[in-house]
Specification:
With 190 residues, the protein is mostly beta strands. The chain has three helices and eleven strands; from the N terminus they run H-E-E-E-E-E-E-E-H-E-E-E-E-H. The longest helix is centred in the N-terminal third of the chain and has 9 residues.
């Protein structure tokens, strides 16, 4: 009797955990993602090497986030301006995480929106998008062959301070960029 009551209590929404025993689902109908104000992954040299995002794959049955049994996808695009002024997307990188690979990114406990993932994705070292506009699209491959897409997120990747000072010969400083050093005549402090 006590075991039945304990099992019932653990099934309550506030008591569920996202540990290895949490069931994965495949009835995803929507992807909800949240980026912090500064979503960037930064290396020891202050160079941006990726991004962080909280992602919820919303189940049709529960209308809440669920852990998924299929592949999680993420596409990184660079937004480029065409000669006619319109913008196009240029695919730079694709991530594909299996259920096993994504398990390490699971939130440990159920949140108000359900179960989710705290993804930290790093792009290859040959990709340099500092100062450029990028677009990120999250996706999920269901077992029935449908790919569910989240809304695209467009962001401008900041230029770390040390990169602002390094310019190829003849390239003018960008308007609004902070100077790399203070002029010798500038007074600092009282």
């Amino acid at each position: 009797m006590v075991l039945v009551a304990l099992a019932a209590a653990l099934a309550l929404p506030g008591c569920q955990t996202g540990g290895p025993g949490a069931a994965a689902s495949d009835d995803v109908v929507q992807i909800t993602q949240f980026y912090s104000n500064y979503p960037w992954r930064v290396d020891y040299d202050d160079r941006i090497t990726g991004f962080k995002v909280a992602v919820y794959f919303v189940s049709a049955a529960t209308e809440r986030g669920t852990f998924v049994s299929g592949d999680i996808l993420c596409w990184l695009y660079q937004r480029v301006r065409r000669a006619d002024g319109r913008r196009d997307r240029e695919l730079l990188h694709t991530w594909r995480l299996s259920e096993q690979e994504a398990a390490g990114f699971r939130f440990r406990e159920r949140k108000q929106l359900g179960f989710g993932y705290g993804l930290v994705l790093t792009w290859p070292s040959n990709i340099d998008v500092h100062g450029r506009e990028i677009e990120i699209v999250m996706g999920y491959d269901r077992s029935d062959g449908r790919t569910i897409l989240g809304p695209p997120r467009t962001m401008k990747v900041p230029v770390p301070a040390d990169l602002r000072a390094i310019r190829p010969p003849g390239q003018a400083s960008r308007p609004g960029a902070a100077p790399a050093t203070r002029p010798a005549t500038e007074r600092v402090g009282p």
